[in-house]
Amino acid sequence: MAKVKLLNYDDTILIHLLRQGSEKAFSELFDKYWESMFDSAFKLLNNRELAQDAVQDVYTDLWKKRYNLKVDSIAGYLHQSIKYKALDQIRKHKIILSDLDYVDHFFESDFADDSVIAQELDTALNDYISQLPDQCQRVFKMSRFENLSNKEIAEQLNISVRTVDNHISKALKFLRPKLEALVAVIAIINF
């Protein structure tokens, strides 16, 4: 016997059927929105497994709440839910930016299409860097913006390579949490 598809039904009917406990309606909603939700979660998390977990959590919650579901737009509900689940994953797994390369990736992504957002990120980054001690600031800028090697920085500033390493580590330790929060907020706003 062929599997009956409900795809011809609009979301309003699928929500109505879901409220009545229809597994077919749930399955259709899953098939219809899973890929776009995964893409959204992946953009925020940059991790396939965590993105899949976030989507699974949203659908698990949807099934649990099916009898009391009060939504007008299931698409809006699911996509808003995935934002919150992705943020939960960030908090739960304490996702750490491995380096400021993530910020570069952010600037190159769809989120940065808006030049106002890109400018805000740039302004915030410069503000955070200005809060570093002078020598740490100088070393960090030479490393990240002038693309100098640690050895070249050490030679120019007449300090040891180990001191350069320490300054860069100190700067990243200070900047990571600030930038992670900023990127998450801008991603959600621009979602």
Automatic annotation (TrEMBL):
Keyword vocabulary terms for this entry: Sigma factor, Transcription, Transcription regulation
SUPFAM superfamilies attached to this UniProt entry: Sigma2 domain of RNA polymerase sigma factors (SSF88946), Sigma3 and sigma4 domains of RNA polymerase sigma factors (SSF88659)
Top-rank lineage group of the source organism: Bacteria
Gene Ontology molecular function: any one: DNA binding
GO BP annotations, alphabetical order: DNA-templated transcription initiation
Pfam families: Sigma70_r2 (PF04542), Sigma70_r4_2 (PF08281)
Annotated RNA polymerase sigma-70 region domain residues: 41-94
Family per similarity comment: Belongs to the sigma-70 factor family. ECF subfamily.
PANTHER family, A to Z: RNA POLYMERASE ECF-TYPE SIGMA FACTO, RNA POLYMERASE SIGMA-70 FACTOR ECF SUBFAMILY
Protein name, as recorded: RNA polymerase sigma-70 factor
Source organism per UniProt: Fulvivirga sediminis
